[in-house]
């Protein structure tokens, strides 16, 4: 079994119990620095900063992910599609299509608390330079 990072109570609620943070409350909502975002639970690379955009929805939004990093799961409510870390299945948020917010026409709506940010100034794993 893989060893995961220690999570606080709120991080466990969001990542393991599929909760959500309040809109406009997360540290990465209006955060636009060069680097990449990794899963808070297992450190797997998820998103590059060049895929982040301002959607004004209250959560960090991305129009692409690192290939193979994010899995889609039909949500229990039958209306949405949940996104999880493909490595550890930790809850990230939901994905929406057809909103016409970017050319790719997709929005990964991600809880800030589900991610950690690694600045471009820090050496990146090989997967991020592909």
TrEMBL record:
It is an enzyme of class 1 (oxidoreductase). Keywords: Metal-binding, Oxidoreductase, Zinc. Pfam families: SelR. Coiled coil: none annotated. It catalyses: L-methionyl-[protein] + [thioredoxin]-disulfide + H2O = L-methionyl-(R)-S-oxide-[protein] + [thioredoxin]-dithiol. This is peptide-methionine (R)-S-oxide reductase. Residues 1-120 form the MsrB domain. InterPro entries: Met_Sox_Rdtase_MsrB (IPR028427), Met_Sox_Rdtase_MsrB_dom (IPR002579), Mss4-like_sf (IPR011057). SUPFAM superfamilies: Mss4-like (SSF51316). Its EC number is 1.8.4.12. PROSITE patterns: MSRB (PS51790). The keyword Ligase does not apply. One of its GO terms (molecular function) is metal ion binding. One of its GO terms (biological process) is protein repair. Its cofactor is Zn(2+). It comes from Pseudoalteromonas tunicata D2. It comes from the Bacteria.
């Amino acid at each position: 079994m893989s060893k995961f990072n220690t999570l606080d109570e709120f991080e466990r609620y969001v990542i393991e119990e599929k909760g959500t943070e309040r809109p406009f409350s997360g540290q990465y909502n209006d955060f636009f620095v060069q680097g990449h975002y990794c899963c808070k639970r297992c450190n797997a690379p998820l998103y590059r900063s060049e895929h982040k955009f301002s959607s004004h929805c209250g959560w960090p939004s991305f129009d692409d992910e690192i290939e193979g990093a994010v899995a889609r799961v039909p949500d229990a409510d039958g209306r949405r599609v949940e996104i999880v870390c493909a490595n550890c299945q930790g809850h990230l948020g939901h994905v929406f299509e057809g909103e016409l917010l970017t050319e790719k026409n997709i929005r990964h709506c991600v809880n800030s608390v589900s991610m950690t940010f690694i600045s471009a100034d820090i050496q990146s794993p090989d997967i991020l330079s592909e």
